[in-house]
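I'll show a typical protein example:
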Amino acid sequence: MVSNPLIMGVLNLTPDSFSDGGRYTTVSRALKRAADMVREGVDIIDVGGESTGPGSSDVSLKSELERVIPLIKKLHTTYPRLTISVDTYKAEVARQAVAAGARMINDVTALRGDEAMVSVVAESGVPLVMMYSKDTSARTTRTKRRYVDVVKTVKAFLEERVRYARAQGVAKEQLILDPGMGAFVSGLPQYSYEILARLDELAKLGYPILVGASRKSFLGGPLEERLIPTLVAHTVALQNGASIVRVHDVKEHRQLLTSLRSSSQWER
């Protein structure tokens, strides 16, 4: 387990996000949710204006900007020490978000969705999360892709994306890697579990690893019963080298981290 793992809280301003779509579509509602997360011990808030899950719809640049920029400005003013991440693959959204106070970019396409994104990242100097996805577009599918060795495939993809980013002027210190989970990997759940079990192989690449298993369908059961499976999945991820977990339930994950730290100290 890394010495100081971080909790990234999910804050979606979208009507079609799989877990909380439509709940935080106004700035006032989103600010209230952000206040709850800050009180519960969040380290990073990841603001998203476009869902990329199966069955989601494209969002215009104008609409995405109208959703996320006012909130990021308010969050930055209200919580100046909080790390705000913008969950986008659009370069212009990322550029305006950084200008508004965001200090991280979370790109599910790993710089494949907008060729101008890499310049925004290099010029801004902020951290960038690059995620593995089986799909070439930002919109993932429920395709049941099969792998000979899923970790080998994910590792090769992330290594290639790192080489590309570094060649375009992105510093090594800016990069965070996300192996993907759930439908981004495959409609078959076993591959997400294999990634969690072998996450240490990806951690050996030498970059912080972000894992976002929160409430995803590969965990099984109805959405409202996925908290415990989420905590179990993230426990495995943290024990195997994850530096950041991306979550919907901040309070419970703060309790988890406290418990894991206490356990590690006891074992020593």
User: Anything to note?
Assistant: The radius of gyration is 17 Å.
